[in-house]
Predict the 3D structure of the following.
Amino acid sequence: MQFLDKTKIRIISGRGGNGMVAWRREKYVDKGGPAGGDGGKGGDVYLIADENMSTLMDFKYKSVFKAESGENGGIKNCHGHWAKDLYIKVPVGTVVRDLKTGNAIADLVKHEQKALVAKGGRGGRGNARFASAQNRAPQFCEPGEPPIERELILELKLIADVGLLGMPNAGKSTFISRISSAKPKIADYPFTTLVPNLGVVHKPSGDGFVVADIPGLIEGASEGVGLGHEFLRHVERCRFLVHIIDTTEEDPVGNYEKINNELAKHSKKLAALYQIVALNKIDSIDEERKQTLLKLFKDKAEDVFLISAVTGENVDELKYFMGKKVEEIEKPVSDIVVEDDPDATNNDDSAFEISKVSKDTFIIVGGKINRLASVTDERNPEQVIRFQNILTGMGVFEKLNSMGVKDGDTIIVGKLEFAYYADEFYG
């Protein structure tokens, strides 16, 4: 399986259904009455964490997600069906950011944890809702609310207890294959590991812990050199690190310090994580070099192990020690600051624009205005008057006056077209 740990998606919630203008017409019901039903609510969009996913690869092939719209209201007070909510599965450990602001709006770290990212539009009310003692036969209804459309950045930070670090070919992949059932690609050339590998290590008690094999770091990784800088985020959630050192290299201590310098450049929090040092490939060096390196690293780290991932020498001892440390060290608290997300519930589209397309014609465009126009019958005076009253409340005619509108000028809104008369028509 390919690995993808950062991607962009576009989401669109469901539009609310329009209300209905309708009347009771039963033969034996005197005078009938309003019977227009409400529109159904549009579907919400949620992101939900799924522990069965380990990559964002699915979003490479599908990046646009749209919830269903609510059904329009019907006759005989029948309300439109509410649309089903849309749940988009993402891996556990996914951080969600708003593309426009860059703010983190969710940090999904538990299985089935969910976040509302776009609320569906409310359904419009039918004319039965507007009946009153003063107006027993309302001739108007409401349009449904609009959907919310936005773009999000998904960034995966693997949830692992232990992170394996080391230079390319230090033996991390061989080590994780020894202690778990993970089957990473192993070869004798640099950058064999191109993506993080996860392995579950089982303890004698029956439970287990997760180890992440991170692609090899080299000097300059935090500035974009090599591969490791792409994956440093995946060790940010680890309890501690196991630093694999190739003892056959010319300068093992220098390599150790280079990698720790890269960690510090990337994050002070990473640099402060507890580390176990594993001096690997001891099957290829003599006893004198073993003891020399052991002494050198004892001055730099609290816990140092001599191991051979190839032959398995001392690997079980290190695995047992790692299990004890997993129990002792708590998971680090996430440093992701999750911001309030008003854009997830803000269906307001009351903004409008007015264009003067000729000396006597004005076109008004706006989400709410166009939705109102769509449910207004220009042949029905009551509906037209209500529409005009709403435009007045929104400041549309005030804006027209500032643009020099004159009596007799043509106003076009969506499918509606009418003449402007300040004194006679608008009072």
The chain is about 20% helix and 25% strand.
